[in-house]
Design goal:
The protein is α+β, with helices and mostly antiparallel strands and about 170 residues long. Helix content is about 35%, strand content about 20%. A hairpin with a 4-residue loop joins strand 5 and strand 6.
Amino acid sequence: MFRWLTTLVGAALTIGLGSALAVAQEEGQARAAAPPPAETLIVEQPRGFMLSEDLVGMEVKGPDDTSIGSVHSLLFNQNDEIVGAVVAIGGFFGIGAKHVALSWDEFDVRPSEKVARINLTREQLEAAPSFRDRASIEAREEVERAQRAREKESGRLPQPGLTPRVPQPGLAQ
């Protein structure tokens, strides 16, 4: 009896799922959309154009042709224009690297050489402040707010001139 019942349930499920898939397939075919207007499409990369993946990871060289680091990421403004690039300096496969952002005007990108040149030295970038992205800034602010709230609840007030030390990515701790 049990075997007959499981066979019946299995057959019902098979029929039900098969019907559901067939209906879904028919609906998908019925709702096939027309392609977007031709003027909105770019179907091939024009000569002289670069993809972001060509820039990210590109070697960055200084004025004396020494390797400084690599392009870590691109910085866009509210108008979707590239305004800068973050250079990763040092580290091992990106771990422990210092990130410094430079204005896009500082870069001379040479796609044929697969290199971006800048007129700054590695030493200058090592002496520059590390770049902090929006997520790390907001995380730091949240930690500071939470610490102030804990101090307020405990009745302790922070000492003037002392601020909590919050780890920053790319900086030696």
